Amino acid sequence: MTKVLTSTATPSWVQPQEAALNIPTLEPILDEGDANLNERAARRSLLGEVLDWLLAPLFLLWPMSIAITYVAAQDLANVPYDLSLSNALEVLSQQIEVEHGRANFKLSAPARLALRTRENDGVFWKVIGPRGELLGGDAELPSPDKVASQDFDTVYYKNQMTRGFEIRFAYIWRTAGLREAGPVLVVAAESVERRVALANDIIKGVIIPQFSVLPIAALLIWFGLSRGVAPINALQKRLRARKPDDLSAIDARNVPIEIEPLVNAMNELLARLANNILAQQRFVADAAHQLKTPLAGLRTQAELGMRGTLSDETLTSLKQIVSGTMRATRLVDQLLLMANAENPSGIQVISVDLKDLAQTQTQQWVERALSKQIDLGFEAPDTPLMIKGQALLLAELLNNLIDNALLYTPARGHVTVSVTKTHGIVLLAVEDTGQGIPLAERERVFDRFYRILGTKADGSGLGLAIVREIALQHDATIRITDSSTNELRSSGTRIEVSFIAS
């Protein structure tokens, strides 16, 4: 374990960092809240909307289909049985003869055999003469009245309740060959039970398969729509896989024609956004470059003026000018670094020993730590800890973390820089015993120019913003926690930056 301290002896509070590593996220995870969750739940998906418009009519029309099927089944069931009754009427009509101007009914043996067969099936019949006399059959069978709109020699059908059950009539006023005697009423009837049974069988044969076909149809519709929106999901994955700073145009060649206008609109938006960001970066870089020269001249003149014989008041003013120009130069340098960090095209990634880099940078802050009476320590294993990155930006990341820790740590405090490796992750941590960062503020300290309320320390508010930008360019993650607790560390902040080991 390598240690670099401002004191000659190793303090008891410097301990190897052997705790289990939790992979952090780049920014603190925020609770969306009930309002956001409700708003998200209220949003409809495109797939769900199309499924509703396809399946809702399907399930609404299904009961109508059942009703129509029932009516059609009733008609279909009547057809064969009505034909059978019509044939029975024909058989009975052929047994009517005219003798001496009067209608007589004589049932032949073949006809009797046929009607007997029908009787076994529940067929009832009777024949009524022109004067209302019964020529043959069941006298209790009802006789339909002749309606003016009914024609002779035409078969009519009618349902009626008789003897407590429903029967269906087929009747005809026969005049063919009976003009001398007058029209003869021939009636054949049977129970509707067999018709109802046949209609139910037809309905079952049609409806029962629908119980299987309908879910299968719904499943096929869902599958088809899922396949239809697959290009949209693929486009979503492509967009999610992009880096945050990738503002290049989206390839519209592999998207459906209907989505192409949306992709084109997004490309136009990305182009405008890239131009705005580029203009902002150019402005910051140009402004910073323009400020560096006069600031350097002003500092030089103030330092030259301090060499002469001056009054205490004048000397104090010149010292304030030097101090102010140093802070302004630091701010300009940070603005330039921010502009460079936000432009990933200029970053060349190589293998970097993060342990060696962190040790070198920490040693450069020893003098300032001593001037503030702060114990600055460094902890790391003896083996190299390699990552992919740019040494200059990584050094600036660490310098900003150390500068921030020294800035907010009081005299006789402690600041520890540590580098460890666990499960393929190289963890860079800077821990101090300062005032700490409240939980409510941790989500905002990475914003540019943001300062914690109530702080009296000098600073531009760009340090942690630069740390975040550099971490983004190196695919690293950041987490802010409280400092570890023991007799010397009752408060403070620990900032961890996790890199993927190379």
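The record above closes out task 2.4. Task 2.5 opens with a second protein, given below.
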Amino acid sequence: MDKESNSGVDNDLYAKHEKVYPRQVHGLFASLRVTGVLSLLGLYYLLPWFSWDGRQAVLFDLPERKFYIFDLVFWPQDFFYLAMLLIIAALALFFFTALAGRLWCGFACPQTVWTEVFLWIERKVEGGRNKQMKLAKGEWTAERVIKSGSKHILWLLFSLFTGYTFVGWFTPIDELSVSLFHFTAGPWETFWVLFYGFATYFNAGWMREQVCIYMCPYARFQSAMFDKDTLVISYDVARGEPRGARKKGSDPEQQGLGSCIDCSLCVQVCPTGIDIREGLQYQCIGCAACVDVCNEVMDKMGYARGLVRYTTENVIEGKPLNVFRPRILIYAALLVLITTGLFYAISQRIPLELDIIRDRNSLYRTTEDGQVENIYTLKLVNMDERPHTYRLWISGLPEAELLTRQHEVAVDAGAVLELPVRVRIDPYELKKISQEIQFHLQALDQSDLTITQSGRFVGPLH
């Protein structure tokens, strides 16, 4: 094979990346996207600055293994709640994807949110789409150097502020601010500020749609969650074709044309550079920018809106709309059930943990006076923000005696105390070889702070 044919193969397989310059668009979905961006970024940047009860309102203190969320304090022992939260997040993704496609990608994904900010900065510095393209193709004049340099400086400053805020979720942001200002921040804080900052800079500034198209796995497996009743952004081929230019107010039927005037604005506003008229594509992130701009064109032409719209494949084919199908109802029911369960579990959560560990060296032992004794190690975890003194007692074996060096134990806030105890009973009082026994722990200064855990008492066979 000659060099010319080899070159042709290479060009087919490895197309050079062309930067996408999305045109700014206005409309319902654009307003919703801006609202989402402002809300999410507002939470991200402002929440670490709120104080609650003399501390940062939301703080994930990894060194101290404490996770503060307003009035709640979670510990590693509360991993169960995190597991439930992850299940809820996964179900929510399944639910919204099956219902209306890539809503997450188009309106709430961090890549989309930060890219919107970077695009806004780019437009403010370099101008609209046409000016950006003209500037990029022109010579490196003083104007281009100033504008391009200013843009990247603003991108970097915003990215570093993003990395600084990210670390502020894990290190008290007041302390972090002082240490960064005086150049005394620790190596890990410095590393994560720079790492997250430059990751934001490259992902939202340079890579943009390439992250969505090539790096994000969601784009690849989303089709497994779609069906013909999923609401997706679609082009109405029957109404739009054949496409062609025409004068404003003209009747397309008399010209043998469809409603699409082939203005290509739907392509120009797309952040991933696709043509929605070619059908549903995995590169589509569901931002609905093409819906907004097409509706504007239809309004100007005097045509009905909805040539490009959120609809289902079945509706496009003339079948009835069927949004609330069994899988949607099942996802919704599971979401409501698990979310309700999570909030109920948190509302009933007790900042106290009691683990019972039986002596593994022997099942039981017999004392000199003939009584049977089991040995346990109790692990008391005070997950409250203040110290407590607890009273310890047992139940379940009426004639059993709890032997310990102290029946009232003081545990500091966030501390773990291991307490060896013995439970002794006359073997004739045992009804079975193994019986259940309850250990009770109650704070002396807070009667509702109490916990009960079950253990096993093992005795000899009569």
